[in-house]
Request: fold
Amino acid sequence: MKGEKRRHFYSTSSHEFGIWWASKGMGLGPHKRVQRGIVSGAFNGLPPSEHPEVAPHVLTSLKNEFDFNLPKIFERRASRDGTIKYLFELEDGRKVESVAIPFHKKYTLCLSSQVGCAMACTFCFTGTQGLTRNLETHEIVGQYLSVWRDLNREGKHKMTPNIVFMGQGEPLHNFEGLKSSIEYLMETPGLSLGPKQITVSTVGHLPGLLRWDELPPVNLAISLHSPFEEERSKLIPMNKAYSIEKIFAVLRKLPWGKRKLINFEYLLLGDENDSRDHAKELAKIIGEFPSLVNLIPFNPYPGSPYLRPSEERVEQFKQWLVEEKVRTMVRVTKGDEILAACGQLANQFK
Ligand code: SF4
Reply:
């Protein structure tokens, strides 16, 4: 294997690993146990070399043929509310961020899907840096394992964290990377996440949304931010090509029915999209879907062109939606002081 690129262990499916395992003359039975042991070792801090079930000659092959490296934690910042923001360094030196957000006894890990983002949303810090590249499966899964290991090391967390793809990047713009990561996280022994533990948040990248049915039945969150096409296009330039009308036409064809709700994310920008007309129109256009609206008060960042709405206005907007019989929640913004809140990830550690 000298000179050959090693394959990444944390993107090798159970099926592929079984084939490799059999090629080493081992019976098929224990490969899942070994994979489970190595993967859970990754989040518990046990190196693969210490896995008791791996015979020495197999261990040598494993080390020669697989890359077990996880993205390196370059920097880490903890907020007073328990939110922890991580800056990861990838193999090519690029950096991406993830955030661990505590909620009751669990953490939700907000993962990045791209280095930068092409969508250029005008309220978003990440959108200011453009797209550099897609993340590969092992880099997405690696964020999850690395953060979980860090939480375990601190004794903070034992329960399997949930995932929301709401970090840097538009996840449906990296559809293949997203799909294979979700499959890995759900199917790999030692992880086995349920579909309800994973949420994909998108501004409505239409080519990806049209392929939604190819994904396991995870939760969908649509970042709407305005019910008016023209205004939404100012906030999310991609709306000029993939308008609300086109996004909703796709949603209508998906089998939501009895299965679940669509989450609509609504970033409340002070004096921009927080009027009664906005609330009424929002209720009107989403009325056809079983839905939940998440209101997210904007957190200004240095140089941001928008304001944070007052607490009274946030409450008032919620009430307007409730009067329209819209199921609504206000998302408590966490990690404000470390710029870990929605739309604020852009390597601000520097
Ligand atoms: S809000 Fe999301 S889709 Fe828009 S620029 Fe930021 S990361 Fe990209």
